[in-house]
Amino acid sequence: MPRSIFTVPAMALLTLSISACQPKAEDTNNTAVSKWSCQTQSSPFNYSACRIDAAALSAVDAGDRRYSLQLFWQQPDSAQSYLSFDNLLANLPSSQTLAFAMNAGMYNERYAPIGYTVIGGKEIRALNLNEGGGNFHLLPNGVMWWDKAGNIQITESHALQQQLEEGSANPWFATQSGPMLVINNEIHPKFNADGTSAKFRNGAGVCSDGSIQFVNSDEPVTFYQFASLFKDKLQCPNALFLDGGIASALYAPTIDKHDKKEMGVMIGVVETKNNANLKL
Question: Which of 168, 225, 191, 223 is nearest to 44 (CA)?
């Protein structure tokens, strides 16, 4: 957040700081505010991050959940991709609000996902274990996925294949991308601490404090720098690179972020005002 040169009373300064970083929802009670938040940071580099408590996304009964993590690709009853946050917002039911969102992975020239994708229990794209060039194939890559109860995991792709074959993984939503940033609390083995290839990047992590973190760098960074943020500062034992460069996009209105880019699949946290209407 920008620094002020004026003297502000301590209580007023605290109020300003909270209002700049927390959701401006109609229901602003402390319980609702504590479930998720977005903020900007300047260390170790400039980045924007949105977090949500994992517990807020999981429940025995989906009807008890106020918040849900969802993937969005094609518009209702259409083969047309959403392409933008604006189109997604225009198609949300009136009972739902998009808390924050970002691009969910890599896509081809038709804006279709190139990696394993599951939306609402329907497999859109099979698990991609092919070798090749580009970031997606900088192995190991991985999958961010969650079951119908909202339990979220990030799993290396071959490990997930085994779980799928055994029947121990039942993704309700899934998005595959690469490379993995952090794997079981270790930075990707092919990242170089002295690397010089810096780009805008975005990714997600499942973190030890019980949160899911979605991060968009606001300046070019290397893979090692980006992975170190998840491992050391955010303390995420597993984190996944989603995309970068011109494909890196973030919607976070509480911190005045609303990219106008075109993209493939999007990932976002939805708040449902009437839990009885929650449909995943």
Answer: 225
